[in-house]
Amino acid sequence: MMGINWLGVVLAIVVGMIVAFVWYQKGPIANAWEKLTGVTPERIKPVRVRSMVQLFITVIIMAIGLAVVIQLAAEATGDDSVWAALLVGLVMWVAFSASTLVQHNAFELKPAKLTIINTGYQLVLFLAMSLVLGLL
């Protein structure tokens, strides 16, 4: 019977939020992202609260989704190792996140560098959250 480790979900949410804040803090990545998107702290200020709420909600959904799929994979394969959890996170990133971002960014004529920054963030996010879930 499938059971979700809710402590793992909560910790994955915390880690997901930390990854988001660290990835987009002032520095080379954030500076390049700002330049490519035109989104500056001043420009986002009026919608900052809404953006943070949306981030939080999507990280919650992601943590629950990863927990469910990691648990299903563990039950199906008999492998509940950290490596199996990381593999699930990698597969979910490739299948859902990276593929979607690459498609959208290509058709929206976004620069390749922006696609790399955003898919890189998503990869780190998926793997960090999967790592937490795999460890617990």
What are the key terms here?
mainly alpha
Question: How many domain modules?
Answer: 1
Structural class: mainly alpha
The amount of beta strand, in percent, is under 5%
Mean pLDDT: 94
Largest sheet: none
Radius of gyration, in Å, reads: 16 Å
Number of helices: 6
What string gives the helices and strands in order? Answer: HHHHHH
Q: What level of helicity do the residues show?
A: over 70%
Give the N-to-C terminal Cα separation.
17 Å
List the uncertain runs: none
Bulk shape? globular
Number of strands: 0
Topology:
Blueprint: H1 6-23, H2 28-37, H3 41-44, H4 48-77, H5 82-107, H6 112-135
Briefly characterize the structure:
This protein has 136 residues and is an all-alpha fold. Helices cover 82% and strands 0% of the residues. Helix 1 (6-23) runs antiparallel to helix 6, helix 2 packs across helix 6 (112-135) and helix 5 (82-107) packs antiparallel against helix 6 (112-135).
